[in-house]
Amino acid sequence: MNFMNEFILPLAFTLDLLFGDPRWISHPVQWIGWFAHITEERLRLTRLPLRLAGILAVIIVVGASAGSAWLLIAMASQLHRVAGLAVGIYLLFSSFAVRSLGDHAGAVQAALEAGDKELARQKVALMVGRDTASLDEGGIALAATESVAENSVDGVTAPLFYALLFGPVGAIAYKAINTLDSTFGYKNERYLEFGWASAKLDDLANYFPARLTVILIAVAAVIGKLRFFDIFKSVWKGARLHASPNAGYPESAFAGALGVTFGGQRSYGGVVEHAPLLGVKPGKCTALVIRQSIALMWMTAVLFLGAGMGIRILIQSAG
Q1: Is 3 inside any structural domain?
Q2: Mind telling me which residue stretches traverse the membrane in this protein (predicted)?
Q3: By three-state DSSP, how is residue 263 classified?
Q4: In this structure, is residue 247 part of a structural domain?
């Protein structure tokens, strides 16, 4: 049975907007992360070549995650159709991070507006991996805004994309892929080989969502009276400069829309790095820019869902 009925995806999306990630409910991503670590431990004991072990880890974790989602829905549906729909709604709801991303960035914005830079540093440290102890107000706002831009794909539009295509099982499979990249996709001695497959699959999974998101960011920018034309200039100029084959697209689009420049110097564990400069305007990030980025992210998410549902309905009507 196809559980992707027309109402459950908008309902799950609305629940995320209303409630975010309730801490009293066990989150599937936590279970996926736990299973990924267990799988890594077991595979490393086999003495297989690390790249092969990493490929097997991807197959096992993504397969088990998608299979578990399907099985949960099927078992619940045997009890009652409504139970199956409820499980599907929950799995979809847990795949989105619109409210959570906005709340985290909003906490940084509020702290900056209150003049509490130390609190702002603490809040932004929950969003980014860079060192935050020495960030000034502009650096804090930049880190928060960049995080909203980057996560607008893997936390918002990409889960929507796979939910539209494959329902709750597709959304959970994507979250498994994204979690594996977050867990193993590091270019260090431990994960350079073992995490190769995780990083490559995440790049592949985000390829189309990242580029489609630019279009919806542009539409959202028009609605929000931001810089429409600078979006495409910024993407054309800077998207391919980013270390990630996908993250440069939403980040460049946000930078163009907001009239700011992303990138520059930052440090990770005391090691200074220089990220490419993205954007076509020399504007700096502020608390107001964080507020605008949150609104842009929310509008992009709503438009992505609306466009996707519209296309689904047209295809079904034509069929």
Answers
A1: no
A2: 52-75, 82-102, 208-228, 294-315
A3: strand
A4: yes
Query: Are the CB atoms for 62 and 177 separated by under 8 Å?
Result: yes
User: 70-75: long-range contacts at Cβ-Cβ below 8 A with a sequence spacing of 24 or more?
Assistant: 70/169, 73/3, 73/168, 73/169
91 is a domain residue? yes
Return the DSSP state at 130. S
Say if 2 falls within a structural domain.
Answer: no
Cα separation, 119 vs 7, whole angstroms: 40
Residue type, 20: G
153/266 Cα distance (integer angstroms): 22
* Residue closest to 84 by CA, chosen among 96, 97, 93, 75: 75
- Look up the domain containing 242 and give its range: 8-318
**Helix, strand and coil percent figures for the chain, each rounded to 5:** 70, 5, 20
Distance CA 208, CA 214 (A): 10
Number of domains in the chain: 1
Determine the Cα–Cα distance for residues 209 and 2; give it in Å rounded to an integer. 23
CA atoms within 13 A on the CB side of 222: 8
CA angle 285, 289, 293 (to 5 degrees): 120
Q: What percent of the chain has pLDDT over 70?
A: 98
Residue 34's alpha-carbon distances to 22, 53, 245, 249, 270, in angstroms, are 19, 17, 27, 31, 28
pLDDT digits (tens, 9 = 90+) for 106-121: 999 999 999 999 999 9
In whole angstroms, what is the distance from residue 209 CA to residue 51 CA? 27
Q: What is the pTM of this model?
A: 0.94
Whether the Cβ atoms of residue 76 and residue 83 lie closer than 8 Å to each other: yes
